Known about the structure:
This protein has helices spanning 3-13, 18-31, 37-50, 53-66. By secondary structure, the chain is mainly alpha-helical. Keywords: Sporulation.
Amino acid sequence: MDFQIREAITTNVTGDSAAAFEDTISDAIARGEEHLLPGLGVFLEAWWKDASETEKNAFTTKLEKHFVS
């Protein structure tokens, strides 16, 4: 992902409330448009950097269960 995309997304959401983030994420998922995926990736990256090992393990376990074949 291009750094400029990260910077633009970060600038656009700086100062947003938790409710605004929830609305943004819910809207992006509901719309299902491919061009919104980088923004969700920036959110995931920011969360991942601050998450504890327990939170990361819980998240990856959920992903594993979701994508089981």
